[in-house]
Design brief:
Rna Polymerase Sigma Factor, Chain: A, RNA_pol_sigma70_r2, 2 domains, RNA_pol_sigma70_r4_t2, 183 residues, sigma factor activity, mainly alpha, Arc Repressor Mutant, subunit A, RNA_pol_sigma-70-like
Length: 183
Amino acid sequence: MLRLNTKDLIDKSKSGNRKAQQQLFSQLSAPMMGVCVRYMKSTEDAEDVLLEGFYKMFKSLKAFTYESEPAFFGWVKRIMVNESLMKLRKNKEIQLLAINEDLDQEVDVSPLQDLEVSDLLKVIRSIPVGYRTVFNLYEIEGYSHQEISEQLGVSIGTSKSQLFKAKKLLREMLEEKNEDYGS
């Protein structure tokens, strides 16, 4: 099958071409699964979010105006992040507790540098969902604390507190992991 560029795939998908939609799905499914897996505790939940996200993407595609491939990728990624957050909210998994609202301290997470991506993903997926969600939104997606507070319906201080606690917990877990391996 002829491999079309992204703009052509989008145009053909908008007009209902199933082969173009399949090709677009194939092209985007692996990186978007990576996004979903960072937020969900189980692979099954991540797959559900991925499929729901693609459903919404294809449903909204006609209204999308193509500017560039990175802009399209960012648009699809935002859909996946929003779907992940909706699933967490629906399952009442996001329970952010702000104990100390004024935590602006940085936490050293240098043990992360020596870790394989798959190991890091496992560690991130094992922390509580509130910490994990804020960590992903801030450190990986690049959201500001203001944007996170609006997305999750929490204060900016709560967002900062959750990020601080996530980094601290990750550092402790990684240090423990290093001790287990005799490092």
